């Protein structure tokens, strides 16, 4: 029997653990549940020890963020498990949610798989972080089956087929432990946000595939650690998306960066029109951080260029399709561009 560790990263998430951990415990089979705690300062650990004394806890020395927090924890258990099931602390799981994911990973070429991710507060709609599987466009903007930008689709089983995807959501992802370490784990310079997309691109460059299997479904609250409109989240999303491009874009880099600068300038105008001045500064800081870290990023890019397998990428512009062509649904996109 292959061993599965359900690893939940936590930082000051006692309220989420109280709400969502019971479903994980209820629907576990022979999997081991592990809480990787990023040096919480609330009562998370006291709650766990009192309420769930048999659950294993790995204590990190500080709040390392998503990327390093998981790397530190998974390194400590890498010799014990064949699969890591990474799960946010604000996810409610359902009966038999693990078996379909394991079934997908029986294909030796599939490295990771995610379930269908629906909104906890509105069960009939997809959730932002992953929906029914993630993709990236030619400018590396992420979107999903069931979610483009902030437009969430109602789920009426239109995306219930198992599909090959560009990235699997870090909110709920089953990944083969050997492949996780083979590609170097999460890039810790990302801290949080889009680190799973970067991981998935590196996995594809090794020749592996990623899947979404909607026979498994979970409900994600979203914004559990950092609200969606948080300036810090906006900064990390813009910065890490640029990190993603520098590291992973196989073609000429600087024309791609200039194009993204132009697109991000349009984003600043949008924020200005909405009176969100703080978010404009977040975009500027994101670009400054890329220039500051350019030597480091270029070195990572050089290492990755040795891996020549292509990535699954939407060859069109999701911005053009969404804002100009008014295609609000994944199903309305031109599939010839995939």
Q: Give the termini distance in whole angstroms.
A: 37 Å
- Poorly predicted parts: none
Shape: globular
**Total domains:** 2
H/E series, N to C? EHEHEHEEHEEEEEEEEHHEHHHHH
Number of strands: 14
- Give the % helix: 25-40%
Kindly identify the CATH topology of the largest domain. Answer: Spore Coat Polysaccharide Biosynthesis Protein SpsA, Chain A
Give the C-level CATH assignment of the largest domain.
Answer: Alpha Beta
Mean pLDDT: 95
- Number of H- or I-type helical stretches: 11
Quote the beta fraction: 15-25%
Give the biggest beta sheet: 10 strands, mixed
Question: What does this protein look like?
Answer:
This protein has 338 residues and is α/β, with parallel strands linked by helices. It folds into two domains: 4-220, Spore Coat Polysaccharide Biosynthesis Protein SpsA, Chain A (Alpha-Beta Complex); 231-337, no CATH class. 39% of the residues lie in helices and 21% in strands. It is built from eleven helices and 14 strands. It has helices at 14-27, 44-51, 65-77, 99-104, 177-182, 195-205, 231-248, 253-273, 277-292, 294-304, 318-324, and strands spanning 4-10, 32-37, 56-59, 83-88, 91-93, 110-119, 122-126, 134-136, 142-144, 147-148, 151-152, 163-164, 172-176, 209-220. Strands 1, 2, 3, 4, 5, 6, 7, 12, 13 and 14 form a ten-stranded mixed beta sheet that branches. A two-stranded antiparallel ribbon has the order 8-9. Strand 2 (32-37), helix 2 and strand 3 (56-59) form a beta-alpha-beta unit. Helix 7 runs parallel beside helix 9 (277-292) and helix 7 (231-248) crosses helix 10. The longest helix has 21 residues, at 253-273. It is globular, with a radius of gyration of 19 Å. The model has no long low-confidence stretch (mean pLDDT 95).
